[in-house]
Write a structure and sequence with these properties.
There is one protein chain. This protein is of the alpha+beta class. It has three helices and three strands, in the order H-E-H-E-H-E.
Length: 106
């Protein structure tokens, strides 16, 4: 019993520390979706399924994804945004067929 209790206390202390640490970090979210000129078969399949479930008013569905990014202290907000924009363009999205949007958390 003592060992379980000790580990629970240690986990709680780690969670408190992690929580306090994460409050000072910047966060960004990158949304990536197919360009409107690119066919979206997954979106079309979802739209068809919705129509089959009685949601005939849904005309179009476009699928996408997002990435939550946490940035360490030490960067200015402007530099962090610039770095995330570069990562989005070069790594997270395929600029030939996808577009992306970066949002920095307040």
């Amino acid at each position: 019993m003592y060992i379980i209790h000790r580990h629970a206390v240690e986990r709680h202390a780690d969670a408190v520390t992690d929580s306090a640490y994460n409050r000072s970090l910047m966060k960004a979210r990158v949304y990536v979706s197919l360009k409107t000129t690119v066919l979206d078969p997954q979106g079309q399949a979802v739209r068809a399924a919705l129509a089959g479930l009685g949601h005939a008013a849904i005309v179009e569905v476009r699928q996408g994804k997002f990435f939550d990014i946490t940035i360490a202290d030490g960067l200015s907000r402007e530099q962090a945004r610039k770095d995330v924009e570069t990562i989005a363009h070069e790594v997270l999205a395929n600029p030939v067929i996808e577009e992306y949007r970066v949002e920095m958390a307040e």
